Amino acid sequence: MSSSTPQSPPPSGAREAHPEHPEHLGHVVFITASAAMGGFLFGYDSSVINGAVEAIRDRYDIGSAELAQVIAIALIGCAFGAATAGRIADRIGRIACMRIAAVLFAVSAVGSALPFALWDLAMWRIIGGFAIGMASVIGPAYIAEVSPPAYRGRLASFQQAAIVIGIAISQLVNFGILSMADGDQRGEIAGLEAWQWMLGVMVLPALLYGLLSFAIPESPRYLISAGKVARARKVLAEVEGDHVDLDARVAEIDQAMRREHKSTFRDLLGGRFSFLPIVWVGIGLSVFQQLVGINVVFYYSSTLWQSVGIDPTSSFFYSFTSSIVNIIGTVIAMVLVDRIGRKPLALIGSTGMALALGLEAWAFSAPLTDGKLPGTQGTVALVAAHVFVLFFALSWGVVVWVLLGEMFPNRIRAAALGVAASAQWIANWAITASFPSLADWNLSATYVIYASFAVLSIPFVYLFVRETKGRALEEMG
């Protein structure tokens, strides 16, 4: 499934949607925001587990290694969901794919809130992960396909904005539920423990996502591929306006799909057993994005702060403030990425992350006094954690996805993106699964490892990553 229609010049008689024709923009924004609910659930489901980690450890009396597998196992579902979403959407449509994801999100929420044992909690998390993987693919693709060309870039940013807002809202909900339970993650509220409510509340946005899918149209690109040209014309009129030559637009989309090269794994090989250099660069970007340890913040930050003596309520509050910083950094990246370029922004982010992670390592090297970090080190740890999130969000959090969408030649773009995304899920799993055991071994040394990867990313970007700012996709070779 291609994520966008090639942006060739409008055919004769057609006029591109433009700011002077904004009559349909409100409707398009509603459609885009509705589709971006999948991104919201992506962020929400990915990080809501942060509030339940210690309660799950206590409830099932498990060690760090087992706990890590329960937390990380959702990423297996993510990988399968991302790998299959495109094919599902091409067979039954983008809207049907959204509805499947909404059902899976809702089922996962209810199942995770009412587990019989550890094994079925893990199963529900895999199902939720599958929905995350689907949402990570179908949202951006659908938004690109329904957006008027003049607004496509700005509307595409809705997905990333929705993800970081979902992360923040999940931490706010966790904080509110914990407060209702008097700071006890296993405190009872209406017959269920607090952590069960944290995981179960996701059923509400999942239902909203499902309902919104009935209020938005099918992608015109899919409709044309399915031979439903009349419906495609109607949708194009809704999103691009009556001033557009609809017959010409239908013909343009149809021709673009016929010209597309379906890239395969074999196209990525530069030798018998080796990828092309550009594919290795994409894999490197994906892996470095995860190896700096960013998902430790979103999966384990509450546990981390409690391990150095911060009370549970405050630890949840700091998780929420980190999410707000994440939103701020993402907005900064959206403003700067087309102004100063992808490569400079990545280098700035790597430098800032390396310094912040180094300070974290220093702070956590201090011996605990009465189960707490000394005052100076505790303050440095908190500030450095937020600085780390800020520099990640304003750089690698956005830049990597922009680069992956632009850096590959047309003939291999789809397959190369699939390989790079798979590498990212694998690296994400490695960091998520290893952190509890590494933290038990030596928390300071763990942050030294993450800081080292941030440092190594600097020469990697400087030497191997090409700037794509201002270059047409057809120029990538």
Structure, described:
With 477 residues, the protein is an all-alpha fold. The protein folds into 2 domains: 18-216, Growth Hormone, Chain: A, CATH 1.20.1250.20; 263-477, MFS general substrate transporter like domains (Growth Hormone, Chain: A, Up-down Bundle). It is 72% helix and 1% strand. It is built from 20 helices and 2 strands. The protein has helices at residues 25-35, 37-48, 53-60, 64-72, 74-92, 94-113, 118-146, 152-180, 194-200, 203-212, 220-225, 229-240, 246-259, 277-291, 294-307, 312-336, 342-364, 375-393, 396-406, 413-464; strands spanning 188-189, 192-193. It has a two-stranded antiparallel ribbon. Helix 2 (37-48) runs antiparallel to helix 7 (118-146) and helix 8 (152-180) runs antiparallel to helix 9. The longest helix has 52 residues, at 413-464. The radius of gyration is 23 Å and the shape is globular. It starts with 24 loop residues before the first helix and ends in a 13-residue tail after the last helix.
For this entry, give a set of tags.
477 residues; mainly alpha; Growth Hormone, Chain: A; two-stranded antiparallel sheet; 20 helices; 1% strand; globular; disordered N terminus
Give a short summary of the structure.
This protein is mainly α.
Distance between the termini: 21 Å
Spatial arrangement of strands, main beta sheet = 1-2
Q: From the alpha-carbon coordinates, what is the Rg to the nearest angstrom?
A: 23 Å
Task: Please provide the ordered H/E string of secondary-structure elements.
Answer: HHHHHHHHEEHHHHHHHHHHHH
Strand content: under 5%
Q: What's the overall average pLDDT, rounded?
A: 85
| SSE class | mainly alpha
Q: Determine the number of helices (DSSP H or I, runs of at least 4 residues).
A: 20
- Pick out the low-confidence regions: 1-22
Number of strands: 2
Helix content: over 70%
CATH topology of the largest domain: Growth Hormone, Chain: A
At the first level of CATH, the class of the largest domain is Mainly Alpha
- How many domains, in number, for the residues? 2
Give me the CATH superfamily of the largest domain.
Answer: MFS general substrate transporter like domains
CATH architecture of the largest domain: Up-down Bundle
Largest sheet: 2 strands, antiparallel
The quaternary structure here is single chain
Morphology: globular
